[in-house]
């Protein structure tokens, strides 16, 4: 039997001034997309969706699948640092305003589903948000066990994995 975690209150209320006070905050809060007062994770994922498509269409030679994979890998590593720093500064390890994890994870989903029609991308968005919000096992257990940047980043990578698993099953059926 596990003991419940204490409820923590943020010592800092994230706003634009806080976000701009350090590069880690700017990154982890998704360049401002995480400052939405309602559903910041959804806004971070929408930012990921829009930015992936705009960058891929505008500069297709630079934003090739290989370069996206490199960017996602580097972005994951940067996220470990940025989310750890921001979580410490806010006072909550995985504050809702930190959406870099959603951005990196959804970029990963979009990379693996490949060039896809908007309707397919919309389904990817739906499934990713569902898994990210409901946190089915082992995502919730993973999130509780690992704190700081590693836990923040990895629970969304697991949601991305579940999303890609749905797409793999969808293609088989």
Describe the structure in your own words.
The chain is mostly helical. The protein has one domain. The chain is built from eight helices and no strands. α4 (65-90) packs antiparallel against α5 and α4 (65-90) runs antiparallel to α8. It is globular, with a radius of gyration of 16 Å. The model is unreliable at 1-8 (pLDDT under 50).
Overview in brief:
The chain has helices at 16-20, 23-28, 40-58, 65-90, 100-113, 118-134, 139-145, 148-172. It is an all-alpha fold and 173 residues long.
Output the keywords:
single chain; 173 residues; mainly alpha; 8 helices
Q: What is the helix/strand order?
A: HHHHHHHH
Q: Tell me, rounded to a whole number, the average pLDDT.
A: 91
Q: Please state the structural category.
A: mainly alpha
Uncertain residue ranges: 1-8
By oligomeric state, this entry counts as single chain
What is the number of E strands? Answer: 0
In angstroms, what is the radius of gyration?
Answer: 16 Å
> Largest sheet at a glance?
none
Termini gap: 39 Å
Q: What is the general shape?
A: globular
Q: What's the helical proportion of residues?
A: 55-70%
Our count of helices gives 8
Overall structural domain count: 1
The proportion of strand residues reads under 5%
């Amino acid at each position: 039997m596990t003991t419940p975690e204490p409820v923590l209150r943020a010592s800092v209320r994230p706003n634009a001034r806080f976000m701009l006070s350090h590069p880690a905050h700017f990154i982890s809060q998704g360049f401002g997309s995480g400052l939405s007062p309602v559903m910041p994770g959804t806004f971070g994922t929408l930012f990921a969706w829009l930015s992936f498509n705009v960058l891929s269409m505008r500069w297709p030679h630079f934003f090739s699948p290989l370069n996206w994979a490199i960017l996602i890998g580097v972005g994951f590593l940067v996220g470990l640092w940025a989310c750890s720093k921001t979580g410490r500064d806010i006072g909550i390890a995985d504050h809702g305003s930190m959406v870099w994890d959603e951005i990196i994870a959804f970029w990963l989903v979009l990379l693996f589903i490949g060039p896809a029609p908007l309707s397919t991308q919309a389904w990817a968005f739906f499934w990713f948000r569902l898994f990210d919000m409901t946190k089915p096992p082992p995502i919730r257990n993973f999130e509780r066990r690992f704190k700081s940047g590693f836990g923040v980043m990895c629970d969304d990578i697991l949601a991305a994995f579940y999303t890609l698993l749905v797409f793999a099953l969808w293609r088989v059926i």
